[in-house]
């Protein structure tokens, strides 16, 4: 029961990080002269939908992913808004390249900052630090990361950096290169692992959850289609080539969507196998 409660609290905390992502993007866009059309936290079927001023907010069933949608030129014209050079509200594409870049970067950077603050908080505790294969045998159970445990010494930036490399980075490489995920869990496995760590070592929770937030923000900055880093790459390509590249971007995004769907399928499969193993083995 306690594990379930801590898992729920960890998922809520992750949702708050996702909310920070969309709010950061929305605030940046508003300050830079864009109109925010829709802010969404979560994926899948919509659980909650409401309106704040002219912006629609929604909450998805699955606690993964977040997005902020800005109005384009056609949408603004459909609202009979008269656009001029001096208009306070402009379509996203009409903003200067540096304004677009700041809007693209604001969301992931908020996740990265939150992750760094959590990892810094872990260094304030005298209790323990999280490691792979601890020498004194304090393993976390259940764990979506093989051989994850903790040792009775204070966490520092070096130990947190090693944890990021040995968990999030290693798992991501395994997923995208289609290596074996035996013993690894997906999103829900990670949330349950954080909850299990909280039961054994509160300071370890800050390290584990901080790694997830930091890794998510860094992952979103990779120059891959659909991710923020991909949009940033396309923006600079447009700037360099001085052309729209719409056909190229559309094809790249289609390929990116297929790739993301394959990655999501692997994550769901890994989660299902891991949960099954915890329940029946």
What's the end-to-end separation, in Å?
20 Å
Number of strands: 4
Beta-sheet strand percentage? 5-15%
Structural class: alpha+beta
Average of per-residue pLDDT values: 88
Low-confidence stretches: 73-87
Using the CA coordinates, give the radius of gyration. 21 Å
Q: Which strand order does the major sheet show? A: 1-2
How many domains would you count in the coordinates?
1
| Major sheet | 2 strands, antiparallel
Q: What is the general shape? A: globular
Q: What's the SSE pattern? A: HEEHHEEHHHHH
Helix content: 55-70%
Q: How many DSSP helices?
A: 8
Organism: Gimesia panareensis
Domain Peptidase M50: 27-262
GO biological process, one term: proteolysis
Subcellular location: Membrane
Describe, in plain words, how this protein is organized in 3D.
- The protein has one domain.
- Helix content is 58%, strand content 15%.
- The protein is built from eight helices and four strands.
- The strands form two sheets. A two-stranded antiparallel sheet has the order 1-2. A two-stranded antiparallel sheet has the order 3-4.
- The longest helix is centred in the last third of the chain and has 35 residues.
- It starts with a helix and ends with a helix.
- About 5% of the residues have low confidence.
Keyword list:
single chain; alpha+beta; two-stranded antiparallel sheet; two-stranded antiparallel ribbon
């Amino acid at each position: 029961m306690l594990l379930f409660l801590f898992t729920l609290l960890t998922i809520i905390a992750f949702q708050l990080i996702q909310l920070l992502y969309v709010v950061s993007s929305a605030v940046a866009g508003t300050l830079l002269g864009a109109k925010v059309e829709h802010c969404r936290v979560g994926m899948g079927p919509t659980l909650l939908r409401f309106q704040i001023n002219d912006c629609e907010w929604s909450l998805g069933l699955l606690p993964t992913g977040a997005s902020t949608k800005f109005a384009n030129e056609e949408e603004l014209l459909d609202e009979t808004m008269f656009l001029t050079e001096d208009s306070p509200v402009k379509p996203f594409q009409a903003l200067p390249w540096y304004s677009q870049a700041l809007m693209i970067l604001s969301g992931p950077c908020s996740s990265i900052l939150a992750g760094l603050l959590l990892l810094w908080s872990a260094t304030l505790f005298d209790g323990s630090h999280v490691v792979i294969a601890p020498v004194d045998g304090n393993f976390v159970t259940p764990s979506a990361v093989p051989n994850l445990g903790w040792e009775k010494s204070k966490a520092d930036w070096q130990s947190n950096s090693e944890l990021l490399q040995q968990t999030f980075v290693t798992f991501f490489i395994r997923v995208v290169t289609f290596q074996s995920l035996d013993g690894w869990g997906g999103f829900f496995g990670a949330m349950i692992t954080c909850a299990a760590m909280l039961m054994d070592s509160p300071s370890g929770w800050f390290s584990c959850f901080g790694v997830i937030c930091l890794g998510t923000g860094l992952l979103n900055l990779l120059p891959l289609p659909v991710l923020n880093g991909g949009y940033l790459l396309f923006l600079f390509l447009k700037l360099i080539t001085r052309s729209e590249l719409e056909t190229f971007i559309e094809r790249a995004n289609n390929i990116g969507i297929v790739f993301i769907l394959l990655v999501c399928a692997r994550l769901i499969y890994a989660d299902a196998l891991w949960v099954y193993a915890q329940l029946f083995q």
